[in-house]
Amino acid sequence: MYEIFFSSISGIFFFLTIHIFLWRIFPSNSPRMLLLFFLAFTGAICSIIVHLLFFNTDIISVISTIWLDIFFIICYLFLYAGLSRSVSLTLLEKISIVKSVDFDSLVKDYESSIRFLDRMELMKKNEYITISNNMVTIRPKGRKLIKITKLFGRLIGVSLEG
What we know:
A hairpin with a 2-residue loop joins β2 and β3. The chain is built from seven helices and three strands, in the order ααααβααββα. The protein has a three-stranded antiparallel β-sheet. By secondary structure, it is mostly helical. The chain folds into two domains: 84 residues, no CATH class; 68 residues, Arc Repressor Mutant, subunit A.
């Protein structure tokens, strides 16, 4: 069992290393999902090679390695896409910079987004922001989320664009 995990982790490590390296060398505002998918596929191939070279060639363990890679890749792609295009995180970041923002100015900035009011209500319900007297203020829970998001974004070379 450990050989499946070790093989998958080696492929994921290869994928993340190349991903971070390329995104830092060639920064872009585009999420480059196709390139990311290609890199993930390359990481999965690396996992299979590691598995075949260092462990048994039993077809079941090779397929298990592939499925574990697919699981990690899907999780990462969803996390990456959510981080790079999240309206909620972008709103929280904008509010955290100035501590308090007029609600009408946010509405003006996001009038083309059909999800804006839903996102604001959800952030209020989850205690990331407070809305009172037409002012939106970030709460400690929202500040903590933005700090974690910025840290992860800096690590992989992504900025919030939602």
